[in-house]
Specification:
With 735 residues, this protein is an alpha/beta fold. The protein has 5 domains: 112 residues, GIY-YIG endonuclease (3-Layer(aba) Sandwich), CATH 3.40.1440; 60 residues; 179 residues, 3-Layer(aba) Sandwich (Rossmann fold), CATH 3.40.50; 177 residues, P-loop containing nucleotide triphosphate hydrolases (Rossmann fold); 86 residues, Alpha-Beta Plaits. Helices cover 30% and strands 22% of the residues. It has 19 helices and 31 strands. Strands 10-11-9-12-15-8-16 form a 7-stranded parallel sheet, sandwiched between helices. β10, α9 and β11 form a beta-alpha-beta unit. The longest helix is centred in the N-terminal third of the chain and has 16 residues. The radius of gyration is 29 Å and the shape is globular.
């Protein structure tokens, strides 16, 4: 056989050929590098390369035939190839490119979301662990405790020995010296490696039919988007658990996206009950060590199921076979900083590129998703009834103009009586108000001065528990003053409106013996605190819960039978495109917490506008009528989902410079067919973290390539370095 047959025939196989490498920096393209001496590079390989004076992580990217060729003598060389990490799959590289193009984001910034833990590329460092060895001779009582623990043959770290036995580290080291224990290297195992996949779970006829449709799609390995639509408590989770089981049986991975990590606490318990093991978690509260182990498990394919926030979508799965987007309507799926994207929509794209099913799950689907189902682009799977003996809660409108609360109080006699009856029955009540803190506004009774954030266009919210007033946009806080900062009058400051802390104070006055709990993100501000709060409710250690939106969805409390919405009108005012839709969704989800087991649920909506369309349709459970009416109004106004929107946001510390640049962009705005540009105008949140903000809004027909149009429009405009320009495709917020 001729040795020439083994000579490099293809450019990609030559060890000296340049390769494009995309780095995890805000760059718009890949740069060519030479491979390390004697090594070959393939697309998807993870590498370390020089970039200016720095060394950065990157991925060998796909060739761009239109890219200019740089002479090899001008190219730098890859410093290191991470050979023990499987390359990033081609489908994921295609996904990263698509996300960057669609959202008009830097390609390297999107790649960084797939490589959020650079340390994970380094070889794993072993941990020291101990196993039982030669036990002989006289054994003292402390050593015997350790021997009894280690009899099962499992390797344990030092803390896993000392904690249950109460011995010191010195005792363990002495046992090693005496030969009773042997130290070994232990490598952390990837989470969620082996699941119990039995089929003994009881499902209703509707659940069985929906699950069969999903599992069939998983097995077929073809793209299909589903809307799993069902009333709260109908068992949607159990249905998509069947699809997850099928994906794992087929050797695939699955990812479940949740809008808020707060939902994962109750979810983990349900997952462990079904599959015998906890899912791998991915969210910002994980330690660096946990993120390293989980990332490597995902990349290797050892980790089978991931539950995470929106960023979990961008992890480079070895063999992804199913994507679930739970509570798909939730606005938290929209990333509002850095790379601006909607994880719900990007998940559907990832499924399409990977030829796998995507399951969008909600009791209150977004209008965009519902329109896709009506148009036949998504397959609709409907669960009409609550699971088991649970029935629908009774919903009652409380007209605050007639059932008035006492002066400087916020709970009507109707709500107070309902709580009294609920406590007497040994059941639990929930009071819902989507406002953290004690009061949203503090002002001076003497001069009218309002306490505002010095860095944002926002009022400072009083938090009585901490004795501070705080900005919920930038985090600025200061001790609540005794005197007015403007007129210096003493004890003249008065609070206006309620937050959950003020409602809790009122509850203590009316029900001093009741066990109360505030459930809000600033009170239960760690994963552990939230877990303890949820467990306390489940264990019936709480009579009355006062909560914000983190209690509104995903939780199942069998003894919770009464829900009172303190201010059902909150969110209905203002010019937000989706204000009515979001209020409907939130109230519907909150109402769904009542009576989820055998006990009957009662819901009370306090309102000053009982005839408002949203209030009436919530009370009469007319969800589909609401969605069709909302769709008709949006269509008349040529708003999404019947058109395209994009926001252009200018921000910077120099107020006049930001305004000037915004005006320059506005003057150059395109005036084509099917395109309308509104603005520039000061943003509703004019100042955030010391930066002034102006916005433009682009409205275009669906046939218009809005990204191309905006790119050509902005191409000739010079943006000063002190002004930041961000393009928000499909904006959810208009602040």
């Amino acid at each position: 056989m001729s040795p020439d047959l083994f000579a490099p025939q293809d450019k990609d196989l030559r060890t000296d050929a340049p390769h494009p490498v995309l780095v995890t920096s805000p760059v718009s393209k890949a740069y060519d590098y030479l491979p390390p001496d004697g090594e070959t590079l393939e697309p998807g390989d993870y590498v370390l390369v020089p970039l200016g004076p720095r060394e950065v992580i990157g991925t060998v990217w796909d060739e761009d035939p239109d890219a200019p060729k740089v002479p090899a003598k001008k190219l730098k060389t890859v410093l290191h190839k991470f050979a023990d990490i499987p390359p990033m799959p081609q489908v994921h590289r295609a996904f990263i490119s698509w996300v960057a193009q669609y959202n008009m984001a830097d390609l390297g910034s999107v790649l960084k979301m797939a490589l959020p833990v650079p340390q994970a590329l380094d070889p794993q460092k072993p941990m020291v662990a101990y196993i039982l060895s030669n036990v002989s001779g006289q054994i003292n009582p402390k050593h015997q405790k350790v021997i009894d623990l280690m009899q099962d043959g499992l390797a344990r770290r030092l803390s896993e020995i000392t904690a249950p036995t109460g011995v010191t580290a010195g005792v363990v080291k002495t046992m090693v010296k005496n030969g009773h224990l042997q130290s070994i290297d232990l490598f952390a195992q990837a989470p969620c490696r082996t699941l119990t996949l039995d089929n003994s779970h009881k499902l209703t006829k509707a659940q069985t039919d929906a699950a069969a449709r999903l599992t069939s799609s998983v097995t077929s390995e073809t793209y299909e988007a589903f809307l799993l639509d069902g009333v709260t408590g109908s068992g949607k989770t159990e249905v998509y658990f069947e699809a997850i089981a099928q994906a794992v049986k087929d050797g695939k991975q699955a990812v479940i996206l949740l809008p808020e990590i707060a939902l994962s606490n109750s979810f983990i318990g349900r997952f462990k009950e079904r599959f015998g093991v906890a899912p791998a978690l991915w969210h910002s509260s994980l330690t660096p060590a946990q993120r390293r182990v989980t990332w490597r498990g995902i990349v290797s394919g050892d980790t089978k199921v991931v539950v995470g926030a929106r960023s979990a979508l961008f992890l480079p799965y070895r063999s992804l076979g199913l994507i679930v987007i739970d509570e798909e309507h939730d606005p938290a799926f929209k990333q509002e900083e850095g790379v601006l994207y909607n994880a719900r929509d990007m998940a559907v794209v990832r499924a399409h590129l990977g030829k796998i099913p995507a399951v969008l799950v909600s009791a209150t689907p977004s209008l965009e998703t519902m329109q896709n189902a009506w148009a036949g682009r998504y397959t609709l799977l409907h669960l009409p009834d609550r699971f088991g003996a649970a029935g629908h809660a009774n919903i009652r409108i409380v007209d605050l103009r007639e059932d008035k609360p006492e002066r400087q109080r916020f709970l009507s006699p109707v709500i107070r009586n309902a709580i009294t009856e609920t406590i007497a029955k040994g059941e639990q009540s929930l009071l819902f108000l989507n406002r953290r803190g004690y009061a949203p506004l503090t002002l001076c009774r003497t001069c009218g001065h309002r306490l505002e954030c010095p860095r944002c266009t926002a009022w400072l919210v009083e938090h009585k528990a901490t004795g501070k007033i705080q900005c919920h946009h930038c985090g600025y806080s200061v001790k609540t003053p005794d005197d007015c900062p403007s007129c210096h009058d003493h004890n003249s400051l008065a609070v206006c409106g309620p937050g959950v802390e003020r409602i809790a104070e009122e509850i203590k006055e009316y029900f001093p013996e009741a066990r109360t709990l505030i459930l809000a993100s600033d009170v239960t501000d760690t994963h552990e605190k939230l877990k303890q709060a949820i467990e306390a409710i489940h264990n019936q250690e709480v009579d009355i819960i006062i909560g914000t939106q983190i209690i509104a969805k995903g939780h199942h409390f069998p003894k919770l039978t009464m829900v009172g919405v303190v201010d059902a009108d909150l969110g209905l005012s203002g010019g937000d495109l989706r204000a009515s839709e979001r209020t409907f969704q939130l109230l519907h989800q909150v109402a769904g917490r009542a009576g989820r087991a055998e006990l009957k649920g009662e819901v009370y909506l306090q309102t000053y506008d009982p005839n408002h369309r949203v209030i009436q349709m919530i009370a009469h459970d007319h969800r589909d009528n609401f969605l069709r009416t909302e769709a008709l109004e949006r269509k008349r106004a040529k708003m999404p989902p019947f058109s395209r929107l994009a926001g252009i946001i200018l921000s910077g510390p120099n107020e006049s410079l930001v305004k000037t640049v915004a005006q320059d962009i506005g003057r150059a705005a395109p005036q084509g067919q099917g395109v309308r540009v509104l603005g520039p105008a000061p943003a509703q949140m004019y100042r955030i973290r010391g930066n002034y903000r102006h916005r433009l809004l682009v409205q275009a027909d669906k046939s218009v390539n809005i990204q191309k149009m905006i790119s050509e429009w902005l191409e000739g405009i010079k943006i000063p370095s002190k002004v930041r320009l961000a393009v928000d495709i499909d904006p959810q917020s208009f602040l």
